[in-house]
Amino acid sequence: EVHVVESGGGLVQPGESLRLACKYSEFPRDIDAYIIGWFRQAPGMDREGIACIYNRDLSSWIEGPMRGRFTISEDFAKNTVYLQANRVRPDDTAIYYCAVEWAVVSSCGLTPDDYDYWGQGTQVTVSH
């Protein structure tokens, strides 16, 4: 059983920065390729992908509308991946989820159905 836990959410003011962390448990020894993805879901909206990173070559992808404000980074030695959000806006308010995909391809993508394990999410609220 793989466990995924997000942290770092809370109430932030517009224009501030926020760093979320995704901590995941150890994988079986035969798993040497995996992808960590960040998603979010606002009330009444579909889940949308933000960013992902592939452990083998550290390649990453940021979804178009998120580029310039969101970055993804890793500390794979500590089983942790981070999502940095800068200049946050009220429409960034959502539950932010981290997910793990045991990789069968060589680069990451943000199709939710491709991911195998999900955390419970962390609430981010952007408001004065």
Search tags:
single chain; 128 residues; mainly beta; 7-stranded mixed beta sheet; 4-stranded antiparallel beta sheet; 0% helix; globular
Short description:
The protein is mostly beta strands. The protein has no helices and eleven strands.
The number of helical segments is: 0
Q: What profile does the largest beta sheet have?
A: 7 strands, mixed
Fraction of residues in H or I helices: under 10%
User: Using DSSP, what is the number of strands?
Assistant: 11
Shape: globular
Give me the Rg, rounded.
Answer: 14 Å
Order of helices and strands: EEEEEEEEEEE
Oligomer: single chain
* Separation of the first and last Cα atoms: 40 Å
Please state the structural category. mainly beta
Q: Write down the overall mean pLDDT.
A: 95
Q: Report the portion of residues in β strands.
A: over 45%
Low-pLDDT runs = none
Describe this structure as you would to a colleague.
This protein is mainly β and 128 residues long. Strands 2, 4, 5, 6, 9, 10 and 11 form a 7-stranded mixed sheet that branches. A 4-stranded antiparallel sheet has the order 1-3-8-7, with no helix packed on it. The protein is built from no helices and 11 strands. 0% of the residues lie in helices and 47% in strands. It has strands at 4-7, 10-12, 18-24, 34-41, 48-54, 60-62, 70-75, 80-85, 94-102, 117-118, 122-126.
